[in-house]
Amino acid sequence: MAYKIVTSQCTACSACEPECPNNAIREKDGTFIIKPEKCTECIGYFDEPQCVAVCPVDDTCIIDGAYPRYQAA
Amino acid sequence: MQQEVSIDSIKKSGSSMEDVMQQMAEHKGCGTSGGSGKASCGSSGGQGDLAPDIWEKVKNHPCYSEEAHHHYARMHVAVAPACNIQCNYCNRKYDCANESRPGVVSEKLTPEVAAKKVLAVASTIPQMTVLGIAGPGDSLANPAKTFKTFELISQVAPDIKLCLSTNGLALPDYVQEIKKYNVDHVTVTINMVDPEVGAKIYPWIFYKNKRYTGVEAARILHERQMLGLEMLTAEKILVKVNSVMIPGINDAHLVEVNKAVKSRGAFLHNIMPLISAPEHGTVFGLNGQRGPTAQELKALQDSCEGEMNMMRHCRQCRADAVGLLGEDRSSEFTTDKIMEMDVSYDLEGRKKYQEVVEAERQKESEAKHAELAELGNEFADVQVLVAIATKGSGRINEHFGHAKEFQIFELSTQSAKFVGHRRVDLYCQGGYGDEDSLATVIRAINDCHAVFVAKIGGCPKADLKNAGIEAVDEYANEFIEQSALRWFKDYLGKIKQGEIVHEARGDAQIRQGAYTPESAAA
Asked: Over its length of 522 residues, how does chain B's per-residue pLDDT go in tens digits?
C-alpha cells in the first residue's frame, strides 16, 4: 500500500515533501522517507503519485513490495 | 552629486531627461516596444545612457553591470533545493567542491543559517552588495524557504540588494511576493520561445500536480515564462534573461528569444555557453552534445547586441558561490565556520569602504576615456582581442601562472569592451589531465593578440610568442582598459610604420573540459 524512496538515489532535494497529500514524507538522516502507513499512492487525490511525478531522479520513488497495493475504501 | 552626473551623461547621449523618462514609462522599464535600439537597456559599461533610477539599481550589482563586477561581490545562499522542471543540461546528483556551475552546491542551508552566513560574509567582504537565491533547484519551487530568507536578511542587512533566479514556471504566482520583499532583480532562464525547440531541452515539468512531457510541457513553460516576464516588468522589477546556448538545438533560435524578451521589457540578456561533460551525468553530457566555441558564442552575442545589451561577464557560478565573479570564497564560509564566527554588522564601515571603491572606479573610467580620446580613428576598422590576468578592482594584478581565468577585452579606436572570460583551472572539469598547463592557456586565449599580466617568467613568455600571443608585463597593477588602450596605440603605430601586419587570430575554447568536437576526437 505504499511507495518508498530508494535512499541511494535520493538527492534530498525535498521536492516531494510538500507535494504529498498525506504528509507521509519527511527528512531523516539527510535523506527523505515515506511513512508506509500514511501513503495512499495518491489514490483519491491525484491521477499520479506526486512523489514520483516531481522526483528529479528516475526510479527513486517506487512501489514498496513489502506492502500490498493500496485499496481505496 | 549623483543626480548631476546622471543628467550630464544623459545630455551627452543626445536625449533630454524628459525623453528618457517618457521612454521608461512607455516601455515598462526598458524597451518593450522595440525599435528604440538599446537606448534605455543594458549594462555593458558605466552609467552611459541608463536612466538614473535604473543606474541606481544596477551600479553596484556585479551581475547586472559589467563595470561593477570588477569591484563588487555577490553571494548565493543555497536554500532552495527542490525543482519543478528537468533540464537536459542539469543533473542534481553531481557535486564537487572544485566544480563551478549552476545547480551545484556543497551544503544546503536553512533560512536562519543563510541569514547568519550573509552577515558573516558581509562583515568579512565589505564590497559584497548582492544576495541571490539561485537554487540549487528553483528559488520559486521553494517559496517558503526563499521568502523567509529574504525576510530575515532584509531585517539584519538592509543595504544588501536581493535577487533571485528562476526557470519561470511558478513565477506568475509569486510576483506580488517578490515585490513585497523588495527583490528588484529577477533572472529568468529562457532557452526557447518555440515549444518544439523546448521539447529538446526539457524532458518534463511538474505543474499543477501533474508531470507533463514533450511539446506540451515546453508550451506550458513558455507561456508561464512570458506571462511572468510581463508581470515583472509591469511592476518595474528589473529582469535579466539567461539563455543557455546549445549548438544545433537553440543557437540560431536564441535570436528569436532575444527579440521576444526584449519586447516584453527584459533589461539584459545573458547568453551562456552550454556546460556539458560526460562525468556531469547530464543528458547532454552523456549524448555528446557539445558546447559552443568562443567565436560561436561571441558571434551570437554580437548579433543580438544590436537589439539589446548583452551580459558577457557571467561566470555561471554555483548556487552557493561567494565573492567577486570569477572567484569563489564559499569554502571560507561553511556552516561550521560561520557558526564559530563572531559577526557584527557594520553598516557605516561598509558604506565607507564602498565609497572608496566608487572613487577608484571613477578614476578607472576617466583613465579609459582619456586614453580613447587620443586614439583618433585612422585605424577604425582594426579590432583585436586581448586577455587580462586580474584579481579584481579593474587592474592588471595577477601573475600569469596563478591566473584561474583570463578576462577578454575587445579593443578598437572607439572602445575597450569586455567581451568574455576564459577559465583555465581544470579541477573536476573533465579536462586534459597532466597535459602542460601552458597549452591549456594558449587554447583558451588563442583568439587574442596579447595577454596582460602582472608578472610572467621568460619561458612561458617565449612559448606564448611562438603561439603568436604577446605577453605584456609592463602595466603591472595599472588599470586594465587604460593599459590595454596604450598597448593598442603602440600596436597601431607599428602597423603604420610597416613593422607588423595586422592579422586575425584563431578560435578559442571558453571552458576547458567542455564537450567540443576537438575533445571528443581526442
From this structure: 333 333 333 333 434 333 433 333 333 333 333 333 333 334 444 555 667 777 777 777 777 677 777 778 888 888 998 999 999 998 877 654 445 566 556 678 899 999 988 888 888 888 888 899 987 889 999 999 999 999 999 988 888 889 999 999 999 999 999 999 999 899 999 999 999 999 999 999 999 999 999 999 999 999 999 999 999 999 999 999 999 999 999 999 999 999 999 999 998 899 999 988 887 888 998 999 999 998 899 899 988 887 577 887 777 776 777 777 777 787 888 887 877 777 777 888 888 888 888 888 888 888 888 888 888 777 888 899 999 999 887 899 999 988 888 999 999 988 888 888 888 864 334 444 444 678 888 888 999 999 999 999 888 899 999 999 999 999 999 999 999 999 999 999 998 888 888 888 888 877 654 333 344 344
Q: Is residue A73 part of a domain?
A: no
Question: Which of B82, B93, B210 is closest, CB to CB, to A14?
Answer: B82
Residue A71 belongs to a domain: no
Nearest CA in chain B to A21: B209
Cα distance from A61 to chain B (closest Cα, Å)? 14
Query: Is there a domain that residue A68 lies in?
Result: no
Rounded to two decimals, what is the model's pTM? Answer: 0.78
Mutate: best of A14, A32, A47, partner B, most B CBs <10 A = A14
Count of CB contacts below 8 A, A vs B?
43
Q: Which residues of B109-137 are buried (b: 16+ CB within 10 A; e: fewer)?
A: bebebbbbbbbbbbbebbbbbbbbbbbbb
Structural domain tally of chain A?
1
CA atoms within 13 A on the CB side of B344: 3
Measured between CB atoms, does A46 come within 8 Å of chain B? yes
For residue A43, tell me if it sits in a domain.
Answer: yes
For residue A14, the chain B residues in CB contact (below 8 A) are: 81-82, 142
Contact yes or no for B84 and A54 at CB 8 A = yes
| Cα separation values, B220 from B71, B170, B196, Å | 40, 11, 12
Domains and CATH numbers, chain B: 2-337 (3.20.20.70), 366-521 (3.30.420.130)
Does B192 contact A at CB distance below 8 Å? no
State the ipTM, two decimals.
0.92
What CATH number is associated with residue A8?
3.30.70.20
Q: How many residues does chain A have?
A: 73
Separation between Cα atoms, residue B83 and residue B270, nearest integer Å: 22
